[in-house]
């Protein structure tokens, strides 16, 4: 344990051009893993958080790989269970894309929160720590030398990472909002495409009959689902038999009102 608390000689001269810039014993009161500089080192060595210290090209390449794996393995199968790729290709792609962007945004947000926390502790002159547990929290005022070192790390190492993560969050958030908006208008877009290609849509496949004629078909609608749907729409959601005195009497007038009769 004593070896863990000792700082190597090279670290003493890291920021002072060969001479010791601070005494390692200044931080001896704070547990090793709770010192901001050691939290920063642990963050850099983490598998996930270390992505943020890569070059922008490498960072976005890893995010792209994560998007591809998420879309292929997780989002696409779930989306296919709700929207058939053959019948609703636009909704299928948009739903899978929304799920992928949501997961990637959460990953970037988690990385951002970790770096933001460490950055705040590096730049702050007073940091909290726990000696043995949550019940004995203490506040540590950094000596001037330690504060200068930590702020140097926070300003030149952590802040650029945080700015990159902020920009990434804004980008993924904008893409997510755009995908949700497109999904909301997917049905009108598909109808427009079908009408442009001359393919029949659900609206155009309804029987072309007058409203008065549709309201007088209580017997025929039992054998034709499309006709029944059109008749129900013409009746404003009321039972079709309400529009006919004979069938209304047979049904006992249930769910009908006096205004349902046309004659």
UniProtKB/TrEMBL annotation:
The record's listing under InterPro entries reads: CGLD27-like (IPR009631)
**Superkingdom of the source?**
Eukaryota
| Compartments reported by the entry | Plastid
The protein's name is Uncharacterized protein
Q: Which Gene Ontology cellular component annotation is one that this UniProt entry carries?
A: plastid
One Pfam entry name:
CGLD27-like
* Keywords from the named record: Plastid
